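In this section we walk through a basic example: taking a raw amino acid sequence and producing a predicted 3D structure, encoded as discrete structure tokens. The instruction is simple. Fold the sequence below.
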Amino acid sequence: MNNNRLVQKSKFSHTNLSVAPVILRPSIIVSSGIAELDRLCGGFKGGDLVLVDGNSSLISDLPHQLCVNTYRTFHSETIYIDAGMCANPYQITRYARTLELNQQEVLQNVVMSRAFTVYQLSTILQELLEPMIKKRSPRTLTIGMLPALYHDPDISPQESQTLLSQDLEKIQHLTTKYTLITVCTNLNLMPLSPARGLGKRLYESATEILRMKQFEGYTALELVKKQKNATILHSAAGQSRLEAFGM
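The resulting token sequence is shown next.
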């Protein structure tokens, strides 16, 4: 009799047991160093391929800030592939100094590779990148001015499209396989077209598209796939912002 009551009590307990839902949060996140952008997207996440596209001057500085913030956050390396003569080690050291980090240590944790032709870039991505990842175990991969070399007038549009498709597949594969924080930039007066050409392939491949469009007095931010927006107000020369005072 007592055993039956124990069984009934046990069944009753199980039927009323409530299990809290498990919420998975990405643990690999690096900040951009731009307060408004980080509030909008929550930083750049491991396993994501993000394309930053637009005409804002902030885009040219973003890869340098990611190099420094990756070291500050993870004490890990960044692989920086320069596809448009945009990498500037002096900018990296300047940001490191601003954050009171050892400039030499930060630079030692940035692996730079510069491509001068689309074929050199494709070779880096297809043949050299994965061995470099295995050897260096980077946390972040950034490719500056990714689409620039694919616009080579000496290459047919069809060949450019084919090369870009193959290279993007490789980048996607490595980003997922090694949970890389992958950020590709495109700085141009005219944004890429998401409906045709190289822009269409880039927009389809990216986990998220971040558009940064500069106007007089402000920069408009847009997360295209999440349909979220924010604004960065430009301070006048010599004018401090509230963030400088911890607000």
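Looking at the output, two observations stand out. The first strand starts at residue 29 and ends at 30. The longest helix spans residues 157-177. In the next section we compare this with other chains.
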